[in-house]
Every structure is written in C-alpha cells, then in structure tokens.
Amino acid sequence: MLDDFGNLLFIGFQQSLNTEIIKKYNPTGVILYPKNMEDVYLLQIIMEKLYTLMDHGYRFLISSDHEGGQLETIPNIFPSPGNLAIGKVGRAYSYGEYLGKMLKMHGFNMVFAPVVDVKHPNSSHVTGFRAYSSDHKIVEKSAKEFILGLKKHKIAATLKHFPGHGKAIEDSHFTLPVVKDFVENDNDILIFKNLSKEVDFIMTAHILYPKIDNVIATLSKKFLTNILKEKYKYNGLIISDALEMKALYDNYSPKEIIKKFFESGGDILLIGDIEKHFEIVNTFYSMIKNKELDVDFLKEKISKIKKIKEKYIEPTYYARFLSDIAKKAIEYNLKSPTKNPDFLIPTPKNLSLADTSEKDLKHLKLLIKTEFPKSKIFEKKYEFEDTVVYFVLDKVKKIRAKRVVYVFLRKFFNTTNEYILPYSSKLISIYHVLQLLKGEGLT
After folding, report:
1. Interior CA angle at 131 toward 128 and 134, to 5°?
2. HEC profile for 96-140?
3. pTM of structure
4. Alpha-carbon dihedral 18, 24, 27, 33, rounded to 10 degrees
C-alpha cells in the first residue's frame, strides 16, 4: 500500500498546520515551527488537531527545534540561557528533564536536539550558542545528560548534525560548506560514536568533507553506512536535515537527493516546508511507482521505523483534558451543519481586571478563517443574505438573515433561534464550537 511509504517522510509546516496533508501522506513525523504556535492558545488548537488524527488511528511523532537558548520555538516554556551557558555551568540533565516534562505536557513526543556540534574559532553563526562548548568532553557530557533528562519523560532525542557542523564556516541553510580539515577519526565525529547508543535518531549535516568523501554527508554511503552503521554499530534511524536547505537543494535534483540518501543508508527524509516543496514528495512517490527505488529495501526501513517510533507515541497527552472539558461543556440548539456561513464577531474588550476576553479572542478571526476558509467575517454588518453565525459577548443586536446561529460567549440571552453556548470565550472552546458548526458531534 503506497500510503505506508509515508513512514519515510518527516514533514514540517512553516505557516499553518494542514491536517489534510498529514492524512494524505501519513508521515512518520510532523515538525512544528514558530509560526504554527505564536502563543499557547494556538499551540493548544494545533495539538487538538493532531491528537484528533491520533484518535482516528494515525501514529506520528511530533517534534520541534526547541534546543534551548538560541533556538526556542515552543511558547509557555521558560527560556534557557542556552547550551553554551549550560556547558560552562552544568545542569544539562536538569534542563533536559525540565524540557522533557514540558514537551510531554504540551503533546510533543520528540525534539530535534541536542546539538553536539563543537564550537571552533571560525564556527558559523548557525552553530554559535547552539554548541555546548569548544571542549569535546564537555559537549559529550552535556549532551548525554540532556538526553537522559528527556528519556525520563519518554521524549525522543535527536543527535545533530552528523558528522559535525562545528568546523563549517558557512551556513548550510544558504550555501554548501566545505570542511577541508576533517578526518575520519576527527574528535568532532567521535562524539556521535560515543553517544550513538543513547539515541534512536541522528540528523545529518549538509556539508562536504573532501578528506573523507567527495559527496555531501547527507548523501554519503561512506558516512551513513560505512562509518555510522557499520563502524559505530548504530542501530537507530538516520534522518536528513531539511532537504530544501540550499546546501543540498541547489546542488542536487530531488530525484538525486532521494535516491542517494536511501542508497547511502538514510532512513527518513525531512521536508521542513512541505507546502512549498510538494515536488519532493511527488518525486518520491513517482520513483516508487516507477520502481526507481528498491521497494523491498524501503519496506525493511519502514518496519524498523514503525518499531522505533511506537516507543514514543501515545494516543493522548496530559493537558488534553482541558480540551475535553471545553468540548463536553457545550450546550446547543443547532438544526444542521453550516457550510459557508457569514460570521459576525465582536471587538473584544475586557469588562474588568479579572476578565481575559480580549486576549482569549485575539485569534478568533484567524481561527474562523482556518476552519471556514471560504466564509466572510464581519464586525459591524447586521444584514445578511443567507446564514450568519453571530458571536455575542454582552449585547444582542438585531440581525436580518435567513438563518441566525447565536454563539453566546459571555452571557446567555433567551432566544428561540438556534444557538451554541460554550460557557467560555477561550480559543479551544471556540474551536469546538466551529467543529460543531461543521457537523462534528451533532446529534
């Protein structure tokens, strides 16, 4: 079945989460970026969407690049002073344990960390404070402690970027770095050797190391198979760095990348911005159909991927009970779903110091547009041609339309019209109101 090959893909969404894409490709994992979760309100909605897919049998890893310090993406987690500070002072286990706990509570089961690149005098700014130290022993010790902290909460760690990005002067997001003074027993790569038994995921570097191979490391059989899998006896999974990074994408075609990566020993292709790079996925499936890839070989990888990812995936997460409360609290009198109604929304205003409506409704328009992309949203219009969903805070204004559905956010007004009463103005409650309007849960 073609859908099973989605296990060889890890996909990201740079703007808004698209669950239809996840359902279509059934990837082994999803990475969330800052734009998906600008604040904890939006993150809660995203997690509800992802775990609703879990409810329907999908199983995938949920990751981010929340490394601590220089690169932190998830809201509601206290900022870390960064890896360089942790490497100097210690407490890597404490941070790993804290981050693991917070990730787990928010619904994540994986993180693309730790960075085990070593800081060198000419390291690219992309390494910068992401490195623990210029001392190899400190990097290895800190990373191991961090991983153990994550393991306490069953969060999958990812060593990156193999075989080591520290000596690179250039940033592989924009160009191909060439590291000429890197040998097979380089101290940078030995960190991966020593930590390879601690993790199930290692991410590759889009870097050329000419003294070892004339092929970029992500596509190098010498690095991925001969060194990492055979010499180091690594039994976990190898995931690429984002394929669309210019170091790789400007130098190889999608077909070359896919073929070379799998044949070299890679297991999972990471596409950081799936909606701008469907050509990679389309090429991947085309190569399977045209038998340009060894399907039996890929199936062996899929079997291994499934076993490893199931170690970390759970059908729900601790904080989801809040969403469950929001859903079950709703009362309604709704005759039928609405397809593309108009929406009349309020300008939120706090009534007192104890009121949070203004903050709660900050993303109301965005949420409606996401769930009803073809609908129109109004703030002052009171005459409508067909159906209008009217979000009411404190006053009911006269509405002219064939059908009016009232959503009472703060105060219930007796009405013979159709209505929905969520007993809350929180975004997660409104999300479930919108699902009800679409027909989910209607009896």
Report:
1. 95
2. HHHHHHHHHHHCCCECCCCECCCCCCCCCCCCHHHCCCCCHHHHH
3. 0.94
4. -10
Closest of 14, 20, 15 to residue 366, by C-alpha: 15
Nearest alpha carbon to residue 235 among 202, 190, 208: 202
**Which residue bears the tokens 């050797």?**
193
Q: How many residues make up the chain in this entry?
A: 443
Strand partners, 343: 377, 389
**pLDDT attached to residue 443:** 57
Q: Give pLDDT tens digits for 214-239.
A: 999 999 999 999 999 999 999 999 99
Same domain, residue pair 314 and 425: no
Number of domains the chain contains: 2
Show Cβ contacts of residue 12 under 8 Å, excluding neighbours closer than 6 positions.
30, 31, 32, 33, 242, 270, 271, 272, 273, 274
> 309 is in which domain, residue-wise?
2-318
What was the pLDDT predicted at 2? 47
The CA distance from 366 to 370, in Å, is 6
Is the domain of 337 the same as that of 368?
yes
Q: How far apart are CA 253 and CA 259, in angstroms?
A: 10
Give 9's strand partners.
Answer: 269
Is the domain of 300 the same as that of 194?
yes
Report the alpha-carbon distance of residue 253 to residue 244 in Å, rounded.
10
Q: Are residues 39 and 92 in the same domain?
A: yes
Low-confidence ranges of the chain (pLDDT < 70): 1-2, 442-443
CATH code (residue 213): 3.20.20.300
pLDDT of residue 15: 85
Residue closest to 100 by CA, chosen among 316, 312, 305: 312
Nearest 5°: CA angle at 433, between 51 and 418? Answer: 150
Q: Is the peptide bond before 161 cis (omega within 30 degrees of 0)?
A: yes
Of 318, 339, 370, the position where a domain reaches its end is 318
Distance CA 139, CA 43 (A): 31
Decide which of 274, 289, 318 is a domain's last residue.
Answer: 318
> Which of 172, 165, 158, 163 has the alpha carbon at shortest distance from 29?
158
Report how far Cα 5 is from the mean position of its chain's Cα atoms: 19
Tokens of 66: 């929340």
| CB 63, CB 30: distance < 8 Å | yes
One domain, residues 334 and 418: yes
What does the DSSP 8-state code read for residue 224?
I
Largest CA distance in the chain: 79
Residue 251 lies in a domain: yes
Q: Is residue 355 part of a domain?
A: yes
Average pLDDT of the chain is: 94
310 and 351 in a common domain = no
